[in-house]
Amino acid sequence: MDDRSDHRAEIRDFLAGRRARITPAQAGLPTSTRRRVPGLRREEVAVLAGVSTEWYTRLEKGHIGGVSEDVLAAVAEALQLDEDERTYLFDVARAARPARRAPSRRRDVEVPPRIHWLLDSMAMSAAFVRDGRLDVVATNPLARALHAPMFDSPTVDERGRANFARYHFLDTGSRDFFVDWDSGAAATVALLRAEAGREPHDRALRELIGELSTLSPDFRTLWAAHDVRIRHDGLKRLQHPEVGLMELTYQSLDLPVSRLAVHDLSLYTAEPGSTSEERLRILASLAAGPLPATEPTDRLG
Fold first, then answer.
1. Residue 250: predicted pLDDT
2. CA distance 122 to 141
3. What is the pTM (predicted TM-score) of this model?
4. Exposure of 71 by Cβ count < 10 A (0-12 exposed, 13-18 middle, 19+ buried)?
5. Helix/strand/coil (H/E/C) assignment for every residue in 22-58
6. Residue 106: which pLDDT band, with cuts at 50, 70 and 90?
7. Which of 44, 19, 18 is nearest to 31 (CA)?
């Protein structure tokens, strides 16, 4: 199957899945006991969006290139898409438009020194930079200590870089480390789905998704749900092998490292005065290691 066929299948499954989850009552339509499909019918979505049934049917079959933003907005409203899903719909529509030149390939971008300095300055926050494929491309010492099981995993690449998706689905130890494994796995897949909408021609991303789909039944099930997530924040519970259970808040922020790739800065912190903060301090101390020896200096007389 070529890229265009793959892309149409993605659009079809996404739109059909969003349509199936909305009941007529939720859409403000009359209900009937005689319904052979879950959720809304195509003609009902067409009425809500103000387009013809034939036109919407063609759209749901993946023919989305050239569709105006106003019409996409009307379809998003009819399907009650949230902000991330709406962004994903516009991304896949943009990617489906005929290109005048060969599609660009996402390239790895080196994280500049100023970003490493920024990470290292955050002594009590575990901070790292992650790309759209969920590769961890830069860390401070505390982030590496906090995620030690992932960095010590055989799922790291030949450059020693960890990847959240590979660790989640290809290392059974992740189920012990991530206390809320199921919700974390779902968020991981939804983040990859959003990246696939932004960059459908990213060969490395397609290879990652193919690898995970082949090796992990859990990944295949979650990928088929077509859930989308762009912003990532909340509460994370980790069972760390050295300091025990930690409950941390995390926040991801867009980091404009380069226009060639998406990066975000992720921060993990603990509530002040909590047991988790104390355990984070212990990890920070372990990560810092002993202070380097310094030569004595004469006192100014």
1. 94
2. 10
3. 0.85
4. middle
5. CCHHHHCCCCCCCCCCCCCCHHHHHHHHCCCHHHHHH
6. low
7. 44
Cα dihedral 32, 34, 39, 45 in deg (nearest 10): -70
What the block records as the tokens of 145 is 């200590």
Residues 6+ apart with CB under 8 A from 92: 7, 10, 11, 14, 64, 197, 200
Q: In the sheet that 126-131 helps form, which strands lie side by side, from edge to edge?
A: 136-139, 126-131, 263-269, 244-254, 233-240
Query: Tell me, what amino acid is at 127?
Result: A
Neighbouring C-beta atoms of residue 93, cutoff 10 Å: 21
Tell me the per-residue pLDDT of 225-246, one tens digit each, with 9 for 90 and over: 999 998 778 999 999 999 999 9
pLDDT digits (tens, 9 = 90+) for 153-169: 999 998 889 999 999 99
> Helix axis angle, 217-224 relative to 181-198, nearest 10°?
60
Whole-number pLDDT of residue 30: 79
Is the pLDDT at 272 greater than 50, yes or no? yes
